[in-house]
Design goal:
Layout (H helix, E strand, L loop, with lengths): L1 E3 L2 E3 L5 E7 L14 H14 L3 E5 L13 H18 L4 E4 L3 H9 L4 E4 L8 H6 L4 E5 L7 H17 L7 E4 L11 H9 L1 H4 L6 E3 L5 H7 L7 H13 L2 E6 L2 H16 L1
Parallel strand pairs: 3-4, 3-10, 4-5, 5-6, 6-7, 7-8, 9-10
Antiparallel strand pairs: 1-2
Helix pairs in contact: 1-2, 2-3, 6-8
């Protein structure tokens, strides 16, 4: 089980995390809506399609975004949507942020998961999560050529969290698939997907995000809006190599693909 505040998520079977981007510079324009009401509706639709988690993000990881986003701007974008969804949906809400100030605020408002691309590296981040009962996803970013270095980094960050009082059932690991902000080449991403179970061992559940990413476009020669089939293929490979939470922009087709895979496994 993944303990996320009031929720205990069964990670013995695959879970779909639906992405709702709240900043116009976000990598995947397909999941950005320009108003609070549209973002809320998008999240509600994702839950109806089978999302087990909703992930809200206002800190873009788009490699074209070179200006840092201030925590206050993040909160201005996050809080209206978060406050509405806490009362409307019965699945945990994850917040994709690296800023301790943002973490503290959203946890106070009912967020159940902190999803940090920097693995709680900023001063005060570990303490903010440790003071709550929220779940946390620790992601690697940086040079992806050394699989052992990725594994060691994730294990070290997990141990730092546990030493601060975040118990093991609250922690999942993400090897940080992606080019640009995530620091890996296309070939390194492909190799990492084949070695997920080795890289992300140590008994922690694996969360993976491959949806519409650059490496898929590199392989297929397709723009972001045409990468759904490639995203599903990469997601299936990730699941077969140990991923149990998949972070996606296209919830319905992902849920359907995983239902077929599970039906075959259980037949």
């Amino acid at each position: 089980m993944w303990q996320c505040g009031a929720y205990n998520l069964d990670v013995s079977q695959p879970l779909v995390m639906g992405v709702v981007n709240l900043h116009p510079a976000s990598f995947a324009s397909v999941s950005y809506k320009s108003s609070v009401s549209e973002s809320i509706e998008q999240a509600l639709n994702m839950v109806a399609e089978g999302a087990a988690i909703i992930d809200l993000g206002a800190e873009p990881t788009n490699p074209q975004q070179t200006t840092a986003i201030h925590a206050d701007e993040e909160l201005q974008r996050l809080l209206p949507v978060l406050r509405a969804l806490v009362t409307k949906i019965k699945v945990p809400i994850s917040i994709d942020t690296s800023q301790p100030k943002v973490m503290q605020a959203v946890l106070n408002e009912g967020a159940s998961i902190i999803n940090d691309t920097r693995a709680l590296a900023y001063e005060g981040a570990v303490a903010a999560v440790a003071a709550s009962t929220a779940g946390v996803c620790l992601m690697h970013q940086g040079d992806g050529g050394d699989m052992e270095a990725i594994r060691q980094f994730l294990c070290d960050r997990a141990e730092a969290c546990r030493a601060a009082g975040i118990n093991k059932p609250r922690i999942v690991l993400d090897p940080g698939i992606g080019n640009g902000h995530f620091g890996k080449t296309t070939q390194q991403n492909l190799a990492l997907l084949k070695q997920l179970d080795t890289v992300c061992g140590a008994g922690y559940p694996i969360l993976i995000g491959v949806s519409r990413k650059t490496f898929i476009g590199d392989v297929l020669g397709l723009p972001q809006e045409a990468r759904l089939a490639g995203s599903l293929a990469a997601m299936i490979i990730a699941y077969q190599h140990g991923a149990r939470i998949v972070r996606v922009h296209d919830v319905a087709p992902t849920v359907q693909a995983l239902k077929i895979i599970r039906a075959i496994e259980l037949s």
